[in-house]
Design goal:
Elements (H helix, E strand, L loop, with lengths): L7 H14 L2 H8 L2 E3 L6 H20 L8 E3 L11 E3 H11 L4 H28 L8 H23 L4 H16 L4 H9 L8 H30 L17 E3 H26 L5 H4 L18 H9 L5 E3 L2 E3 L1 H29 L15 H20 L2 H8 L3 H40 L1 E8 L5 E6 L3 H8 L24 H14 L18 E3 L14
Antiparallel strand pairs: 1-4, 2-3, 5-6, 7-8, 8-9
Helix pairs in contact: 3-5, 3-10, 4-5, 5-6, 5-10, 6-9, 6-13, 7-8, 12-13, 12-14, 14-16
Length: about 550
């Protein structure tokens, strides 16, 4: 059978379906859809496959979990807790861990998949951000991604609280404090959520409904919309040989991408299965049942909530008292401001960049991060801000481990949370410019050949050769960043939209954003005869040439 012949089994099945549904042309068109072949485009697959594993393992756990805060006396297999009073939720979580065949493995796979799901979303969003893949016509898909990330954090919070152990109860107590700190409506929201005074009798059952029905349903709908939009729109691709704004270079969905995705799903499942088997996570039996009167030392949330924990620990004890009412800024600001800054910034950035640059073109070629220094520097600054807050969420552990005063770590963290992002921005911007100059040197001077040549006057040089065709095309794919025209016309009059204060601000931002973004010049490139080189030793003339200048 030749490669052009359709296997009989597939042909027969396809004909049977097409005769009844008329889906032949639809399937043919979509099965041959081209996907670009680049490793970074598979990062989003990690989140998708983790979500599938979450649905499967979560369904298994719901068969035995009892979302009730009713009090029972434990008489299961874990002897240290026999006879202890606890909630039905905690008792059923222990039952799943010790008495249900495969229950502990499923619990741990579920927990590891949740961490991988959020981590996969984060790394996928960073890839989209740094390559500019959120630009027209993909702004709506970017907003869907931001909403998915927000819901994933809420899903993690509700799931983390369900076992009703001491560690999750500490997180639930913080949640209650944050809700109470909201002005005017905080008390009402707390009674609505908890069904009365904290901890009430309803919070576990309500979180359970939110965790297994409401948020998963929204996630499933948004993921479906995300994939449909991605499928309908032309896929972004990295610049390279033969790649333009009007085509996609890669392999078809069937069989190439389908086989690759299937293998990647199995790899993802194997990873979380191995973690669930050999890496213990959330051993709730060691923490004991939750009691509002108890607290544990060294309590840490899952990594994606660590930055909120850090902001709470760094915030000074500020509060405002007015007319008998207290506004606890020490809780309200760290709970809402960092998360609000990150999410609002992510949601608005595509539209802010479009307004600043005036770029209304469609973009199907992704940027290399170095080619948009300001965007990359902004992204690294946000990561630094997040990372410092995340690290200082464990300031007590840092102090105990390295024998540093807790007050010292807190004060240093308060300085770093402002200084760190600024330094990260400056350093990243300069690194991006340096990498662009390195690319320009490759185009103008070529790459090292490994051949050392001695010139007649005694100087030793390394001969450079033209870069490989695919590398040159990858580098030459850089496009200059668009900028609004701010200069006056022939009569000395600026454009109408830039005459007011907002317009003048836009012009300045646009000029700064597009600065140092000129296209790589190809004049004076390598002639292929080894004349362009970098000196490796000084000859009688004492002159050197550098490919960086």
């Amino acid at each position: 059978m030749s490669l052009d012949t359709t296997p009989k089994a597939i042909a027969g099945t396809s004909s049977y379906i097409d005769d009844r549904l008329g889906a032949g042309k639809f399937m043919q068109r979509n099965l041959r859809k081209i996907f670009p072949d680049h490793w970074s485009f598979l990062l989003g697959e990690i989140a998708l496959y983790s979500f599938i594993i979450l649905l499967l393992t979560g369904t298994f756990l719901t068969f035995w979990f009892k979302p009730s805060m009713g009090h029972v006396e434990y008489n299961g297999s874990y002897l240290p807790l026999v006879g202890v009073q606890m909630s039905e939720a905690y008792a059923s979580a222990l039952h799943i861990s010790f008495d249900v065949r495969g229950g502990l493995l499923m619990r741990q796979i579920h927990h590891w998949s949740a961490l991988l799901f959020v981590g996969g979303l984060m790394i996928h969003m960073l890839r989209v951000f740094f390559t500019g893949a959120y630009r027209k016509p993909r702004e709506f898909n970017w907003l869907i991604g931001v909403l998915l990330f927000t819901l994933a954090l809420l899903e993690g919070l509700t799931g983390y609280s369900l076992p009703d152990d001491l560690l999750s109860g500490a997180g639930l107590r913080i949640t209650q404090g944050v809700v109470l700190s909201i002005p005017i409506v905080g008390t009402y929201l707390q009674f609505l959520l908890f069904g009365g005074e904290y901890p009430g009798e309803d919070i576990i059952s309500r979180f359970f409904t939110i965790h297994i029905l409401l948020i998963p349903g929204l996630l499933l709908a948004l993921i479906s919309a995300h994939l449909i939009l991605m499928w309908v729109q032309k896929h972004t691709q990295m610049p390279g040989k033969g790649r333009t704004q009007k085509n996609v270079v890669g392999a078809p969905f069937y069989p190439s991408f389908m086989a690759k995705s299937g293998a990647y799903f199995l790899f993802t499942f194997a990873t979380v299965a191995l973690l669930g088997t050999f890496a213990q996570i959330n051993p709730i039996w060691l923490f004991g049942p939750y009691s509002p009167a108890d607290i544990s030392a060294g309590s840490q949330p899952d990594f994606y909530m660590g930055f909120l924990e850090g902001s709470l620990r760094l915030m000074p004890a500020w509060e405002i008292n007015f007319l008998g009412h207290t506004l606890p800024l020490s809780v309200l600001i760290p709970a809402l401001l960092p998360l609000g800054l990150l999410m609002t910034g992510l949601a608005l950035y595509p539209f802010a960049e479009r307004w600043i640059t005036g770029d209304n073109r469609e973009h199907h070629l992704a940027d290399r991060p170095r080619n948009n220094p300001h965007r990359t520097a902004i992204g690294i600054s946000a990561i630094t801000f997040y990372g410092i807050l995340w690290l200082l969420g464990a300031n007590d552990e840092i102090s105990a481990t390295f024998h540093i005063s807790l007050y010292t770590t807190t004060e240093v963290g308060r300085v770093l949370v402002f200084l760190g992002p600024a330094l990260a921005y400056f350093i990243t911007y300069r690194v991006c410019l340096g990498l662009q100059r390195s690319d320009q040197a490759i185009i103008h001077h070529g790459v090292e050949s490994g051949v050392i040549k001695r010139l007649p006057h005694g100087e030793y040089i390394e001969v450079h050769v033209p870069p490989a065709e695919d590398l040159a095309a990858h580098i030459k794919g850089k496009e200059p960043i668009a900028a609004v025209t701010a200069g006056p016309d022939g009569d000395g009059i600026p454009p109408k939209g830039l005459r007011n204060p907002v317009g003048r601000l836009r012009a300045k931002l646009s000029a700064e954003y597009a600065r140092d973004s000129e296209s790589i010049s190809l004049d004076g490139g390598h002639d292929g005869h080894g004349e362009e080189h970098a000196a490796v030793g000084a000859g009688s003339h004492g002159e050197t040439k550098s490919i960086g200048h």
